[in-house]
Design a protein that fits this description.
CATH superfamily: Nucleoside phosphorylase domain
Bound molecules: hypoxanthine
Strand content: 25-35%
Distance between the termini: 26 Å
Helix content: 25-40%
Number of strands: 11
Radius of gyration: 17 Å
Number of domains: 1
CATH class: Alpha Beta
């Protein structure tokens, strides 16, 4: 047991899919995993372990933002046997080149967040890369599945309700194509701990036009991302 996760030692798989929303974790488990068991529900942050096509995998929620995913991913990496966390989330598109439902494999996460500096004393960088082999395995798996996938830098914002028009400076600096709120902390933790981390994002809204995937389109919209993440885990 760790501070924020009540799973027993050995109850978390080496490979973990991490949506932000606990109910999405539940949905994935109910629809894609076999023999699943709820192993932690502290703060209603549900974590399950089951099998996909015979391979053991855990699905655990991160909550929203760098502080939250920072806690859960750090504890999973350091207090359980987790080797690889694949975040599966949604993002807002900064560019009209992206369409609703497009799928992104995050190459870098840039951020104004102080997470990496506060946690590890890393002052200089404002972006971190995916870590380990998962990114390449996901790209190869997407090709095999004929699943279009965009490899691109993204922005991990600390702020959802941001005032002011135009793209934040950091977005221009790093040519980030989309915004979410977690990958910067996940990639930093994995980098520090020499673990594997990747982030798949489905475009759920277009910032400029306020177009959005509706609530009832969401589960269906996320199916290709979940399938890609699970099929990729089979190769790890
Ligand atoms: N901003 C931040 N995070 C997000 C967004 C957004 O517009 N859409 C989905 N996740």
């Amino acid at each position: 047991m760790s501070v924020h996760i009540s799973a027993q030692p050995g109850e978390i798989a080496k490979h973990i899919l991490m949506p932000g929303d606990p109910l999405r974790a539940k949905y994935i488990v109910e629809n894609y995993l076999e023999n699943a068991k709820l192993v932690s529900s502290t703060r209603n942050i549900f974590m399950y372990t089951g099998t996909y096509k015979g391979k053991q995998v855990s699905v655990g929620a991160s909550g929203m933002g760098c502080p939250s995913i920072g806690i859960y991913s750090f504890e999973l990496f350091t207090e359980y046997e987790a080797d690889c966390i694949i975040r599966i989330g949604t993002c807002g598109a900064y560019t009209s080149k992206l369409k609703l439902f497009d799928l992104i494999n995050a190459e870098y996460a840039c951020s104004e967040s102080t997470y990496a500096e506060c946690a590890f004393g890393w002052k200089k960088k404002d972006r971190y890369k995916y870590q380990g082999p998962a990114f390449d395995i996901i790209n190869a798996t997407a090709k095999e599945l004929n699943q279009p996938l965009i490899e691109a830098p993204i922005h991990s914002s600390d702020v959802f309700y941001r005032q002011g028009k135009g793209k934040p400076e950091i977005v221009k600096k790093h040519k980030a194509v989309a915004v979410e709120m977690e990958s910067f902390a996940l990639f930093s933790n994995a980098r520090f701990l020499k673990k594997t981390a990747a982030c798949l994002l489905t475009v759920s809204d277009i910032i400029a036009t306020h177009e959005k995937i509706s609530a009832d389109e969401r589960e269906k919209a996320l199916a290709p991302m979940m399938k890609l993440a699970l099929e990729s885990v089979l190769k790890m």
